[in-house]
Amino acid sequence: MRIMITGARGMLGRTLTHSLASHDLSPVDIKDFDIADPLAVENAVASFQPETVIHCAAMTAVDQAETAPDSAYRINAIGSANLALACFKHQVRLIAFSTDYVFSGDLDRPYHEWDNPCPATVYGLSKLAGEEAIRQHCPNHLICRLAWLYGPGGPSFLHTMLRLAGKPTRVVNDQFGNPTSTLAVANYIPLLLDRPLAGTFHLTCEGEASWFDFALEISSLFKREPLPTPCGSNDFPRPAKRPANSRLEKKHLRLLSMPAMPDWRQALREFQAQYPEG
After folding, report:
1. What is the rounded average pLDDT of the residues 162-170?
2. What is the pTM of this model?
3. Residue 210, Cβ neighbours under 10 Å: how many?
């Protein structure tokens, strides 16, 4: 299959480029063209003529988005719209990645794909704008929402914890989500490529944890000391509000009788076995 991967130098893009190496790939990034330039996007898609575009390119600096909202919307909203228009014009399937930040985090249960988004940050608003543009301009699409992502080389929370090894570290224990490995996501993508699916899917690992739970598991598996200690979100004020509840239910996969994503602890063990230094 001819596949273009945007954001190919990012953490998820690198993993997908490696895992899909048997396909005819065009891994592209900002050095190749500006995704916010509609002519550049159109020319890139027209030139390579992919069957599928996997869209990883995004501004993911959550706090930076609060102070540079134009940059967030330029990449996450306008960039996604440009890609969706080009994919529709050339009859290309679009697989795009979004985020738990499209939800406010106030719900007392995991969010499923048909819950109404209500972002509380500029980052979340810009990613939701990108989702809406894809739905409007490219019907042949999959939007896969991710959360608490880590992967080979980082940057991620896991890599921050490894970098802080040897120092007393406090980690918030009142925010909950689904730690998710880029390896697990990349392993699932072929299942989506092989099926005539469309719509929005949650693609996080199964099971849930607090950031503190995640940090303890990282410290244990990677044999890092001292162990972190718990604290509250109020101890770490940030420019962008972090969702208290980032848990995503994989209802769409379940209703289609699709295989489940791996449990987050198992995925972390597999990651550590392959990448003992992160």
Report:
1. 95
2. 0.97
3. 16
Distances in whole angstroms, Cα of residue 189 to Cα of each of 16, 31, 181, 231, 261: 9, 25, 13, 36, 11
Which residue type does 134 have? Answer: I
Q: How many CB atoms lie within 10 A of CB 46?
A: 11
What distance in Å separates the CA atoms of residue 39 and residue 198, rounded to the nearest whole number? 26
Do residues 6 and 28 touch, judged by C-beta distance below 8 A?
Answer: yes
Q: Which residue, among 206, 213, 192, 71, has the nearest Cα to 141 in the 3D structure?
A: 192
48 pLDDT more than 90: yes
Taking the CA atoms of 242, 101, 183 and 154 in sequence, report the sign of the dihedral they define. negative
- Residue that has been written with the tokens 């909202």 in this structure: 69
Q: Please enumerate in sequence order all residues whose Cβ is within 8 A of that of 81, keeping only pairs 6 or more positions apart, or say none.
A: 130, 133, 134, 137
Averaged pLDDT score across all residues of the chain: 97
Q: Note the pLDDT of residue 236.
A: 86
What the block records as the tokens of 210 is: 């607090």
Q: Write out the catalytic residue numbers.
A: 123
